[in-house]
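Please go through the sequence and fold tokens given here and tell me how the chain folds. Record follows.
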Amino acid sequence: MSKTEAGGASAARPARERPLSPHLQIYRWTIPMALSITHRATGAALGVGGLLLAWWLISLSRGPGAYQLVMHVLGAWYGRVVLAGFTWAIVYHLLNGIRHLFWDVGYGYAVPTARGSGWFVLIASVILTAALWAVGLGLVTFGGVHP
């Protein structure tokens, strides 16, 4: 005896279309979820930034012409945008890594704490990146001495 014959679900009703596996469209975005995805993306960005660093270091060994080309590209507005993004990726990844270290020893799993530490990491990474760029561009001086 089949399920339909025993009073189960009717074969005439169409089955609901459901995703084969959970995906981002069915979940409500939360700050820990978004920051986890961002942590992975910044990790990948650090790999690309490492290539930029290697390009810069290789240009040092290739002579003044190669170095001037790299400095021209990195000094242009688009180069500075990439470098600012790279700086933010480093700072964010570091701060979020510290947050994960606390999780590894069992602290910060409560939902309010996870949300709060997530917002802290996000806001602090932007502030620290801006501070690093302000110091690097010489906008901020320490005791009248430029860095």
Observations:
- The helical segments are 31-62, 64-75, 77-104, 111-136.
